[in-house]
User: Fold this.
Amino acid sequence: MLKKIINIVVLAPIGIILIVLSVANRQPVRLALNPFRPEDTVLSMTAPFFVYLFLALILGIVLGAAATWISQHKYRKRARTEASEAVKWQTEADKQKARAETLAAQNLLSAPK
Assistant:
């Protein structure tokens, strides 16, 4: 329930802003990738301005996510190492527990009455 309310409170204004931004920036803009001959049509494309804004936003999100993922590498590596070590120690504890139960059972059977 709280998640739905947060989604409505956050996503609805963002959606409204994006729609208003798209409507306000519908005029076509030419992006020329050739700095020496901007009139060259091979390395240029024409699209509404809001497309470029959205592409810049998406590119920023992807680059930010990649930078965060790369910067957290040492923590993920440490978590993997500690998880494998925990599994190793758990296996060793299970072996020792089984051995102790076996020895206890043998002592009960061989104990003088």
